[in-house]
Amino acid sequence: MTDLKGDLLSRLMNEKKQEEFFEFLERGNWLIFQDAYPQFLLYGESIRRKRGLFHLLPHFGISKFMEVIWEDFWYRRDSYILAMAQVVNEQSYLEARMIQNPFYMEKVLHTLEFVLQDLLSFNQILFPSLKKGRKTVLTGMTIHQFGSLHERIILGRRLYHLLFSDRQRHQDILIWCMIQPHSGSRKDYWPQIFNDVNEGLPGPLQIRRLRNCRLIRNSPRLYSPRLEYAWPNMKHRPAEPGDWFDDCSVVRYLIENDEPVDGKITGDYCETLQNLELAALAKKTVFI
Questions:
Q1: Potential cystine with 85: which of 17, 64, 69, 241 (Cβ 3.0-4.6 Å)?
Q2: What are residue 222's DSSP bridge partners?
Q3: In sequence order, what are the beta bridge partners of 142?
Q4: φ, ψ at 168 (rounded to 5°)
Q5: CA dist list (Å): 153 to 4, 94, 226
Q6: What letter does residue 264 receive in the DSSP assignment?
Q7: Going by C-beta distance under 8 Å and a sequence separation of 6 or more, which residues neighbour residue 134?
């Protein structure tokens, strides 16, 4: 979300489009949180009372799918099934409320800016990790076909494997999260390229700053603001009612899949930054 106010995307979108994209991202995050948070509160209370309280989930608008999953977890403690079910639940919960919502389809999903982000691989999920010598290393994956429920669920499964299939990698990511305060600025993990203070000049981008994932000599770092300075706090309307679960075929996603996932993302991410920079330089001829 802070990228929308950063050095590159802010030059490709006018303020109105930035606000529409922000509202889309913010609403999605809020919907997921207000659905997931009561589930974990009830789990914590179930542990405290030493008995399952998951029959109360419908009172919080939680899908009956998750009520069954939590009951199963309480007795079998299968963390993989619980994690995959959460992925299925979150993405299915968003599908009707966000992805198929005519307003967001018109203002975000069907816009030139959004289509280009998919075509040029601008959407990536990054996990910084801390290696010996305090070197920050990135792993992650690129999001393609964001509008496809199936692809989003498969991405969630791959990210789970990326995080938990390698104990050392998981530990390195966890250490970084514990010692690095999260500001929303990309400076948190790449201060050699990003800064939360704007070092550049306002107006159209005039010259290239990046080459091979390094700043060209004497170039200012890319501006990546802190979240608190990029966007104000938001108040949300209540979540739309309704249970998404009406097709038992989604249980196929709960079957464990050991497909190899290496998570190598640094090269792709560097290429993404350079493509964004080129798009910003070429804005007058590419964008209307």
A1: 69
A2: 194
A3: 124
A4: -70, -40
A5: 25, 12, 29
A6: B
A7: none
Predicted TM-score (pTM) above 0.85: yes
Residue at 254: amino acid letter: L
Reported in sequence order, the residue ranges of the chain that DSSP labels E, i.e. its strands, are 124-131, 135-142, 194-195, 210-211, 214-215, 222-223
Structural domain count, the chain: 1
The residues pairing with 200 across neighbouring beta strands, listed in sequence order, are none
Q: pLDDT at position 151, please?
A: 93
Average per-residue pLDDT in the chain?
90
Query: What is the pLDDT at residue 133?
Result: 65
Closest CA to 18 of 283, 230, 269: 230
Which pLDDT value is given to residue 132?
66
Backbone angles phi, psi at 127, to 5 degrees: -115, 105
Q: Phi-psi category of 61—alpha, beta or left, where left has phi over 0 and alpha has psi -120 to 50?
A: left
Longest dimension (CA), the chain: 64
The whole domain housing 62 covers: 2-286
CA distance linking residue 212 with residue 70, whole number of Å: 47
Closest CA to 56 of 69, 30, 44, 38: 38
Burial of 201 (0-12, 13-18, 19+ CB in 10 A): exposed
The CA distance from 138 to 222, in Å, is 18
Q: Is the pLDDT of residue 60 over 90?
A: yes
Q: pLDDT tier at 135 (50, 70, 90 boundaries)?
A: confident
